[in-house]
Amino acid sequence: MNQTDWDIQAIFEQGAQALAAVFRPGRVLHLGIDWQTLYCDPNFVASQCGDLKRTQKILTTLARMEKTIAELRPVLPTCWIHHDIPMHRSLLLDERILEGMDAGQTQSKLDELRAEANAICADVRPGDRCFAKLGYDSYQSPDLQAYLARSEATVHLLSGLVRNDCIRKSEKGGAARGYNMFVIEDLTVNDYEYTSEFYLGLYREAQRRGTHAVRAADVRSIAAQYLP
């Protein structure tokens, strides 16, 4: 590994140590941001997403997220956060057709992927809470604010999309409100491919706010000791 990779590894290790120090059942909450907007919303039209590569990346991360959250649900409850209006619909309007596929073939593949994603999410919802948000920052949601005011959960773990917009702004919003913020990095998706240097800068910026970057494997390892 080069120095940047070593620095990122050190940040993940620091994040795991920080999470282990504060993880307590009843005090920890998972916020899944904007997953429903793409796949759990029955009004979503698959034809509005023409970027097959991005859809496949989201689906892969979604499956990893579902596995992690399903395993940890007894000690890590979830709130699903979604837009209450079709904001950022432009993110789904990329009409490029994958090279070698015509429009009908691409549509068919996207329908297949959406059906698979809906099957993954089928057992995510029961017992979880859903809140609409008004903008990028999930913590602007009045309903979420009211729920958190009644909750003892002060440690928040974020997953979702996209990493450099709604996740980043929600992380900043949570930190500004005094919550212990952790982003589960391998359970987030970005719109574009970024360099390791970009992510290192992102993590260091978050660290200055007191936010930590963690990996799903470390979250599972820390939480496992509290599972019944």
Automatic annotation (TrEMBL):
InterPro entries: Isochorismatase-like_dom (IPR000868), Isochorismatase-like_sf (IPR036380). It holds the Pfam family Isochorismatase. Residues 31-188 form the Isochorismatase-like domain. This is Isochorismatase family protein. It comes from Micavibrio aeruginosavorus.
